Amino acid sequence: MKMVFKFDAFTEVCIMNGSSYKTRQRQAILDFLIANKNSHVTVGSISDYMEQEGTHIGVTTIYRHLDKLLEQGVVRKYTIDGTTSACFQYAGTKEECHEHFHLKCERCGRLIHLECNHVKEMCSHIFNEHGFQIDLFRTVFYGICSECAQEGAEDKE
Questions:
Q1: Residue 105 in 3-state DSSP?
Q2: Which of 4, 5, 42, 112 could bridge 85 with an S-S bond, Cβ 3.0-4.6 Å?
Q3: How confident is the model over 79-120, as pLDDT tens digits?
Q4: CA pair distance 65, 25, nearest whole angstrom
Q5: What is the Rg, in whole angstroms, of the alpha carbon atoms belonging to the chain?
């Protein structure tokens, strides 16, 4: 029986997946994702941050670690279209972020978890009346958050 004394999100992921492979680079990427869990980040933003912190991690290495974290369900990947870079988000190690929609501000990039019965009713309607099941995991509504809308209104005054 393996005993773990330092228990962090990465250790939890390794235990859940029977893996003990842990590198400084992988931990740095995971730490960045956890610190930015309410945002969608790109490989470029991860790479830029690591360089600023003095940690050189090649883009290929970042993709490889993200792929592993995707397989483990720790990270979520969003692809908007064929021309925009994919975005990634820390999803946690439990089913904590799978039963709701997300709102993404197109100005500041903030990600908002939408817990709303009206939207759930809309999903039920679409399924019952149109035979189409919406994938909550991959559905993101894009728009402007209240803070950015307020700033925009102030700029117009």
A1: strand
A2: 42
A3: 766 666 788 888 875 555 556 788 888 888 777 778 788 888
A4: 9
A5: 18
